[in-house]
Each structure stands twice: as structure tokens, then as C-alpha cells.
Amino acid sequence: MNENILGIVAGVLTSISMIPQLIKVIKEKNVDDISLVMLLVLITGLSLWVWYGFMKDELPIILSNAFAVLVNISLLICYMIYRKS
């Protein structure tokens, strides 16, 4: 298998993995089962992958992880909005 295709497929699958969770949170307006620490660590790690992608000039790494950062920041925003004080 071509390594670029493999990278794109892997990137797409990992990038969309949190979309069902985001949809569930938006529908239910409930973030009780979401870990803030997990979200912060994940966003940090994904952001570092984006940086790495820029350093290596690897578009599949940049695009897939940048998309994942956006999805997880959206989840973080929902967490801030829907959390119970």
C-alpha cells in the first residue's frame, strides 16, 4: 500500500474518532463522563503532531491532526458550557 494513502486513511480514521462523542454531548448537553484532563492532554498531543507535521512538511499529518484539534477544542468548549458547577 502506498504510504501516503496509508497516512491519509489513518489520519481520517483517528480524526473522526471523537465526532460521535461530540455529537452525543451536543444532543444531550451532558459532559459528566468527559475528563477535562484527557481533553487537555489530547489537544496538546494533537497540536504537537501538527507542529511535527510542519517540521517534516507532511500534509497528511498536518491536516488530519489539525482537524482533530478542532474537533477536540469543540468538545472542550462544550465541556465548559455544559459542565455542572
TrEMBL record:
Pfam family, one: MtN3_slv
Keywords carried by this UniProt record: Membrane, Transmembrane, Transmembrane helix
Stretches that traverse the bilayer: 6-23, 35-55, 61-82
Presence of keyword Membrane: yes
A single Gene Ontology CC term: membrane
GO molecular function per UniProt: sugar transmembrane transporter activity
Alphabetized InterPro entries for the sequence: SemiSWEET (IPR047662), SWEET_rpt (IPR004316)
UniProt name for this protein: MtN3 and saliva related transmembrane protein
